[in-house]
């Protein structure tokens, strides 16, 4: 299997005689996969993510592969003498974009996270949440092949949290790998390709995959070929399809991946027809949502 | 690398943390150099004073970013390259400061030896002062690279080590910076100009080795 990045028997300790934080860790990160890392506080999750982002070199073992990487730290201090737009333009060029492209892309991402209004405010005056939006935008500028998120959702408002989930879905749909740590068990629920637990300095794959709590689900009613299967791109979003009538389908998909699923349906050959989209019931529908009020019991 | 350098340079300029060392260097030159003094002596003084300034600029550049911001830039290009960019930025700033100081001092000094007996052409003196200044900038940057993050991380250890290192590299025989400066000072006594190309080459090698060591360590020490 082609791997973006592979850790082989990796160990890390700080200082020559420090205790091992991690030892004997094997992990393969394939392109397009979403990997969740779990573990209690202080078990070495952040160290593992720093190894994956190649910020830390392993004390023993090997890290192979050099994907274009972006990293979001848990807390991003605003003590930088730039405006968000200035900082992101610099970081965009560091990620390999031209100056003009970096500036344009930076503006787009700030808009997406609802921080477009602060684009020219000095970063020292930003709130904690707004600086975190800058950190997140920084990581998405260069369309990285590997995105490492260390509790990147912490401090974001609800709209930005959902936007980041959608951005992660876009990244994996575009073939990028994403590795994340988050304390919310419902974060991107139902969509990680693998979940690992950091325990006693080692990494254990979590095999009870079905037990991960369900997050918000979007219901999509669509028409497609009778008796047909979902298009391959749509199947990868974690969607489940139920054929209610010949050619009529009720699809449920994790809310973060609904845009990806819709895009896959609409661009399939022949294209599917989307009849209705119902957002998750616990989400306050925005005024421009075309969805009718959710029917009772529509959530499977 | 260009993008990282531009980022670091912008960070240095906007942070305004370069002001204290530059003001201190200007004050040092204001006290020690006066117009009409023998040119080579003044150039030696100018070069020697730049060494601790270069070390200080390195400290400013490698500690300029918060850890989280450093990690973001380092993830994109690798921590070694990100660290190297910070070191090179400091070296560039020190070199630029040295070139300006050397030019000004050359222009205002007397074209003569210490006894005002032998004529020392200003242009040739400047041509000898410039490599000496650059050698001092290189050695200062090397001292800064080896006495700051990631080699020494606590301020309590880094700053005394840096100051001691800078002092020793100005006065100890065998240091390229000391050789370059004493070449100018001796030249001012005898009226003979020696261009310190050998000390400059040695300083280049030492600075390259120090930068490589610090950059290599940047992913090995804890954040």
TrEMBL record, chain A:
Residues 276-300 are annotated as: Disordered. The keyword Transmembrane helix does not apply. Transmembrane segments: none annotated. InterPro entries: AAA+_ATPase (IPR003593), ABC_transporter-like_ATP-bd (IPR003439), ABC_Transporter_VariousFunc (IPR051782), P-loop_NTPase (IPR027417). It holds the Pfam family ABC_tran. Coiled coil: none annotated. GO terms for molecular function: ATP binding; ATP hydrolysis activity. Keywords: ATP-binding, Nucleotide-binding, Transport. It comes from the Bacteria. The keyword Chloroplast does not apply. Gene3D superfamilies: P-loop containing nucleotide triphosphate hydrolases. Residues 278-300 have a biased composition (Pro residues). Residues 5-225 form the ABC transporter domain. PANTHER family: ABC TRANSPORTER ATP-BINDING PROTEIN ALBC-RELATED (PTHR42939). This is ABC transporter. The lineage of its organism: Bacteria, Bacillati, Actinomycetota, Actinomycetes, Kitasatosporales.
Automatic annotation (TrEMBL), chain B:
The chain crosses the membrane at residues 18-36, 42-62, 83-108, 128-146, 158-177, 197-217. The keyword Cell membrane does not apply. Coiled coil: none annotated. The keyword Membrane applies. Keywords: Membrane, Transmembrane, Transmembrane helix. This is ABC transporter. The lineage of its organism: Bacteria, Bacillati, Actinomycetota, Actinomycetes, Kitasatosporales.
